[in-house]
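cache lookup: miss for this entity combination. No prior model stored, computing from scratch. Input as submitted by user K.M.:
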Amino acid sequence: MTLDIILQAAIGGLLMGLIYALVAAGLSLIFGLMDVVNFAHGELMMLAMYAAFVLWQVSGLDPLLLLPIVVVVMFGLGMGVYRGLIARALSVRFNRGMVQIFVTFGLAIFIRGAAQFTFGGEFRSITTGVVANRTAEIAGVFLPLPQVAASLVCLAAFAGLLLISRTEFGHALEATREDRDAVALIGIDRDRIFALGWGLGAAAVGIAGVMLATFYYVSPNVGANFAITAYVTVALGGFGSLGGALVAGLLIGEVEALTALVLEPSLKQVGMFVIYLAVVLFRPRGLFGTL
Amino acid sequence: MRNSILRRRRTELVGGAAVLLALAVLPLPIGDVYTQNLIIITILFAGLAQAWNILGGYCGQISLGHALYFGFGAYVSTLLFVRLGIPPAFGMLAGGAVGGLGALLVGWPCFRLSGHYYAIATVVVGEIGWLLFLNWDFIGGATGVYVPFKGDSWVALQFRTAKLPYHYLVLGFAAATWIAAFLIEGSRWGFAWRAVKDDFVAARSLGVRIFPSKMAAAAISGFFTGMGGAIYAQYVGYIDPDSVMAGALSILIPLPAVLGGVGTLWGPLLGAAVLIPVSELSRSYLGGSGRGVDLMIYGALIMVVALARPQGLVSLFGRRRGGPDARAA
Amino acid sequence: MKRRELLLSAGAVAMAGSAARRAQAADEIVIGAVYPMTGNAAPIGADAKVSLEMTAEIINGSHPPIPTLMGQGGGLPALGGAKIRIVMADHQNDPQKARAEAERLITQDKVPVLIGSYTSATAATISQVAERYEVPYLSMDNSSPSLSARGLKWFFRTSPHDEMFTVAMFEFFRDIGAKTGHPVKTVALIYEDSIFGTDSSNVQRALAQKAGIKVVADIKYRGNSPSLSTEAQRLKAANADVLMPSSYTNDAILMLRAMNEIGYHPRAIMAQAAGFQEQDFIKASGALAEGVLSRSSFAVDAVKARPAIPAVNGAYRAKNGKDLNDNTARQVTGLQVLADAINRAGSAKPDAIRQALVAANVPGEQLIVPWKGVRFDATGQNVAATPVIQQVTNGTYRTVYPFELASLDAMWNVGG
Amino acid sequence: MPALLEVDGVSKSFGGVAANVDISFDVAEGEMLGLIGPNGAGKTSLFNAIAGEVTPDAGEIRLNGARISGLGPVACAARGVARTFQVVRSFDSMTVLENVMVGAFAGARRTRAAMTVATDTLEFCGLLSRADRPAISLSPPEKRRLEVARALATGPRLLLLDEMLTGLTPTEAQEGVALVRAVQRRGITIIMVEHVMEVVLPLVSRAVVLNLGRVLTIGAPAEIVRHADVIRAYLGDKYAPAG
């Protein structure tokens, strides 16, 4: 267990951690805004991966160039999901918490079936691109370029989200988060804010999806592989806190990578879960949670 | 006026007996094994949904990790039978006890959390349990455990091809969960738990002890879920972590209760009667195409029912307690 | 009572649906095939559906005779040219659903025999149902050794199981070592934490010890996990002569990429097929797959020894756009053996089929697979199923062992 | 008459904000005490301290000589302290009768006994006609009555009413007052928190006036009204009496 092995695993953990963080950021944004845990979040990412794959297959362009298109598509999809489903789920008078969980769960199954129906079950991969299959080596440590590009884009996305939170729309988001009912008094159209919030959340997970598609396979069930990591990241970081999602994502990426080094890799997720439970039991709201 | 509750409970008891009788007679005219199997699975999941309902419905704790207790029950009963020769008729109760104990162990830390934090914590605990069982060689790990067939016997809960014995076994199980829910609804616990669910601050101010209420509900819910796991193991004849402890099961167990009507006596049964046949039939008759159509139908059904009937399908049958019709004031 | 009508109506729908199916033509034999049509292994189910239906067409159809078992067409001669029909069922890789589908096929579709099922967990419950209903279950492509070790009377398996596959791997190591002067001293095992991975690695560990080869890494990894970079890192550290993975398709793709990302190119990879034999894997891995060795029960390039390959493979390629592989070739062979057994039994009665299967003795030349033949032992296992070793050479698997069947010499840079 | 409740030097601050500072007073058995003061005077914080929701930083609260501060709401309820909430907290998934039964179970063991207690309490509070209606369908004043009924059903010795009469129409207020008087006639000690003086002063025998977390004055309603500081606290300096 020499030093460079640990360093290499740590780097791998860092790169994956940033992706977990961005996936979680979308989830945290939506939860923070309206107390809704989107159990179809992994499936939204899967749709973004398929969108990137299809556009790449049709156009032959580098997936990084396709990023803006997919982000816009996902933004629209996010708003559509809100208006079509979530708005109704929120207006329910009974068992709202439960209805919201199982509506998003039903959506997840539906999207998985639709993906299977449209694309079939094959495992597809984007095999070309400026960074595809290339690795930089610095002092014995290997930096796979697709992951590095993905991490940089995720960081940029985080910066974007933080910037947005500074803008007027961002303040409206924050205000709505603070007190959903009061904002109506000062002329903020709550529904529009929720729809934009969902659009933003879907766009964030869409970015993570496109970047993931550059080095990870695409299949109808790939969303499930990342779902539980995203929920743990959000709950650990604290629902509604973007900074929390970033820190928690990195922490979980590291813990997962280093546990796989020490324990039987099949148990690597257990390391991550135990840390989550330890933190949450003493700080129920997570590391930076305010809700 | 005074005994409106007693009158309602008497009609529920009569209704319960009628349904029990109907379900007891139901399989007799049906010769087709597939349909009998469908009914058995439906009743089993109706019982499991009612078991979950005791914690999730009456006490308001949305646990998304019940597959853990289901798995405990399945493994305890099967290992006692396969390795120690203890017949599942008793193994089932041991399985239930371990399920209840598991629910207490999980509840102890997790009940300090509330709302979505609690739900996510139960998902995580469920995953940990599944991963540990997957890597635990003593219990067979990923290879799973075969339940050897030793001949038709009620004690060993094994029958070669006969379906009726299994039908009455799961019917007994579902009836037990229904009776438990019925007794809870009318008891001091039932009122306390429902108060905890609706508003624990108000409940606390009336002397209701919050944490013990949740733990009691969890123990009973875990016990019946564990028992359901033991029955499932005897019925299927093979168990492995993926089939008795996976996350998908933790969603399937509460689903009928949520769609049928949470915190009601008939919700879980009605939800199971609609949901399970649809998912089984859509898979059997549409799954073969491999186009995922059955998943689309299943997903769409969940969304439509959850949105159209937030209080559950049970609210279609007259003004059920738990809130008037959605359109009322 | 409201609820009872609901249940009855559901039951009625089920029976109506199946009744329409059961009105089969008098001289038709329905075979129930239980495969994963949705879920992670969906592509396997889709390919199985094509390979089985293609084989049925060869057996039933009128076409110039193909020099293979039941290749003359025109249905089953001993049953007046009866046609065989395949009914696919979806088990979604869930043992309980596999059990329900098996029972449905037996009781509703009245199938006299079941075939399936790719994943070993589902084979466990299907074979139990077959045993209880006394209907033969012919496992086409389940490779877990524990399945045939349960003393089941109605269980048959044409395909070799992991132990027989692994024996072929170590025989290859011995012979290639002698031939090139570079024997294998160390191996690294990496396997999925499912029944397939666990069984396969247990056999590999035992045979490595017997062959005096040191296992320098023994890594059980989480299936479908988001990243395998740390696992690849541990393999790189071990740097064994041969890496022996047991993975399904998605993990196989991810594993090769993870190793490439940290600059680790194993000197040799000997895969327990499954994911590594899939077209998706080769397409997705591109150059990374070059030189990957894998055990296989099929050698598409062994045309000299198996003249029927071009015709059968051509028919499959016409329908599915790709060559037969380890899984689909075993499905074709299994169905041929079954059709021959039914024909020899001269009846569609499950017990007659079972007797015919017990008496089966098909010489290798009559198959498309390079086995010595098909002979079932007391446990229902085909003991004459001798696998080959293949190597990916510019994008396709070419047979490299046994040397007499090889279409080219193996690229072997162990101990170089 | 021995003091039922002794509030002895209670102080409580929330993150630097001193909600209560060194508050002391006694409440005799069967008395009706008012707890008044402008918004933000620390009434609710003190009220919650007595009900056990909040643990005082300093000082003690004793019921019948035994300390109850810091024991938590459940222990307080068990010792006979019942309360209503300023913002109504009814159990929406239950009927009116069932809501009250939850309170009744504090004393009753068996369901039938609890049902009897609940039914009698509903009759006493004039809600019997609504017994089988879902709690969620009641009008706001009816919901306030339900809270009182629920609290009464626990068989309390001390009833804490949190702004029960504010925001009511004159007729509703009158019905509310009639109910409070009826409760007092049953010998239950009552502390009424209100910020509208005209409503509470005619009802209570004594009132504790709080301002900025401190006790401004304690006394009979007649003295309270003329007390300079009270006027200034409520109406601001402009109206302070001359001299």
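stored under new cache key. The mean pLDDT of chain A is 88.
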